[in-house]
């Protein structure tokens, strides 16, 4: 893998979006009404949409990064549109609940980026594919870890002292009754992603790829017995 991808400037640029979001979650946790009265609801929506993004990542990504030459570009486009339609149903449900087109627009952007990559025939080298899959695996781990940790452990309210309905959050549930939990989860999740992207180096992903290859060989050997 080209080490230039891991220069400090590139790592700072990669980490900046997640670090910015983590900062917004921290600010909201301390002063939820200081910027926007609906900020708690909007940040909860970000976490819900992120779940769709994380869940759909491997299914959509393999259509872009896959190297199977037997699958035509037209077939990959149809598969992507089919999967995208399924996930868009969930995004549409979120949009209806929160009375905003935000989730649909975000997911349409995601699908559009994948479509553009397929139309261009853009392929990533093996090392970059390994890196992307490793980052996806970590995002799943961080998301689940952040959500379960904030649901199972006591989370201080700080400035988020009201019921979710007071901040414009619809529905019912733990995140609605105790909205500080989703704010804390967002801070942990995006903060962890930013830290990994800031500190990452090629050795991490090389080791991950070696471990995955070894696991695949063991699985294949066990299946052939």
Task: Describe it.
The protein is mainly alpha-helical. It has 8 helices and no strands. The chain has helices at 8-30, 39-65, 73-98, 102-120, 126-152, 174-177, 180-199, 202-224. The two termini are 35 Å apart. The model has no long low-confidence stretch (mean pLDDT 79).
Q: What would a concise description of this structure say?
A:
The chain has 225 residues and is mostly helical.
Span between termini: 35 Å
Quickly give the structural class.
mainly alpha
Order of helices and strands: HHHHHHHH
Question: Rg from C-alpha positions?
Answer: 20 Å
Beta-strand content estimate: under 5%
Share of residues in helices: over 70%
Query: What summary fits the major beta sheet?
Result: none
Shape: globular
The number of helical elements comes to 8
Point out poorly predicted stretches.
Answer: none
> How many extended strands?
0
Mean pLDDT: 79
Topology:
Layout: H1 8-30, H2 39-65, H3 73-98, H4 102-120, H5 126-152, H6 174-177, H7 180-199, H8 202-224
Helix pairs in contact: 1-7, 2-3, 2-4, 2-5, 2-7, 3-4, 5-7, 5-8
């Amino acid at each position: 893998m080209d080490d230039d991808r891991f220069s400090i400037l590139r790592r700072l640029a990669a980490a900046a979006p997640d670090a910015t979001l983590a900062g917004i979650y921290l600010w909201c946790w301390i002063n939820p009404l200081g910027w926007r009265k609906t900020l708690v609801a909007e940040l909860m929506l970000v976490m819900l949409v992120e779940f769709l993004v994380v869940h759909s990542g491997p299914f959509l990504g393999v259509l872009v990064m896959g190297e199977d030459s037997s699958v035509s570009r037209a077939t990959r486009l149809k598969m992507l549109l089919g999967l995208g339609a399924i996930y868009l149903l969930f995004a549409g449900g979120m949009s209806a609940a929160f009375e905003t087109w935000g989730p649909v627009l975000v997911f349409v952007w995601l699908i559009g980026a994948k479509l553009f990559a397929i139309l261009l025939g853009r392929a990533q080298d093996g090392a970059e594919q390994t890196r992307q899959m490793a980052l996806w695996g970590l995002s799943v781990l961080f998301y689940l870890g952040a959500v379960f940790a904030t649901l199972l452990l006591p989370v201080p309210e700080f400035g988020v002292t009201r019921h979710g309905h007071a901040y414009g959050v619809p529905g019912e549930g733990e995140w609605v009754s105790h909205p500080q939990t989703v704010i804390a989860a967002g801070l942990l999740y995006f903060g962890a992603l930013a830290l990994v992207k800031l500190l990452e180096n090629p050795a991490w992903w090389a080791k991950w790829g070696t471990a995955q290859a070894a696991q695949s060989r063991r699985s294949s050997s066990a299946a052939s017995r």
